[in-house]
Amino acid sequence: MTPTLALTEDLLRRPSVSPEDHGCLDVIGGRLAALGFRIERLDFGPVSNLWARHGDATPVLCFAGHTDVVPAGPRDEWSTDPFEPVLVDGVLYGRGAADMKSGLAAIVTAMERFVGRCPGHRGSLAVLFTSDEEGPSVEGTKKVIETLESRGEKIDWCVVGEPTSRAVLGDTIKVGRRGSLSGRLTVHGVQGHIAYPHLADNPVHRFAPALAELVATHWDEGNQYFQPTSFQVSNIAAGTGAPNVIPGDLKVRTNLRFSTEQTVEKLQRRVLEILDRHGIDYTMEWHISGLPFLTPPGELTEAVERAVRETIGRVPEYSTTGGTSDGRFIAPTGAQVVELGVVNATIHKVNECVRVADVDTLSRAYERVMELLLAEDR
Ligand SMILES: [Zn+2]
Predict the structure, then answer these.
(1) How far is the CA of 61 from the centre of ligand 1 (A)?
(2) pLDDT tens digits along 346-366
(3) Distance between CA 28 and CA 129 in Å, rounded?
């Protein structure tokens, strides 16, 4: 068994359902301390965070990730115990196998090899791991970044070990993510008897044409790096349950995933303009889960692409698709952020798994990134 596989299995045995860390960061912190990293636990509330740094100089190359996992879901739908790693035909099963305990293990063993061989590397090597990426993401990476910013500590390059590959390892790296803007809309009507509609005001009927327009709206074209902005309704509810009552209000939850072509203000204005034009009486509460970010081609994208080419033998596609990631908290500090990790086909599903060979290859790719950016003889 390779060291990366052994560490992955150790982490998988810890049922670290968000925001629980279950000792993962103690294990990782211990390994990095043995290499000479300065270990800092920046825990906030129920959330465990690790900031560890090797070296004092700049530039700072940081690897980021999370120890928490989403719940396993119905146990009887799993073929194996989700918190007992099982290896079948070169595939390792368990909750967090792909998202992202194998990634964490690959980072740690890559650092062990790199620092072991190159203890006097230039700049600094760091990790930022949290147990709150799958949850509210309030006391995790966001708080650690605030702490670092408050003392003037900067990350120059950040590699996030999230599972970014689509079909095969290294086919995709993420160089940014879309923004996410959620809305809680309440359409106000007047409740009444369904046989006396002239004495009521039906919020479902009021909203329907506006919804049709919101869904049909072409928000933008996207750009070279981003797909077009999309509007979705996730929840809609109205009605008292009685078949003879016109409901008094309608509640809708909406979400916009948007590109760097948009701003929050522009999107809000356009949504409200549509609602107003349809003469709807409403209240809207907005929540911004993340702003879009993009790392244009540069030192970090070049190093990651070259590492993938040399260790995996593939030319990765640059993508910004998928959900948000903790990169959204790191990028605004001015850091270049690139995400590279294992295949994401089974993440958050039952029977989550990862190809064992990929875990070792990924670790070699991370090690190569460290060499390209921090080796003395650069
Ligand atoms: Zn993840």
Answers:
(1) 20
(2) 999 999 999 999 999 999 999
(3) 9
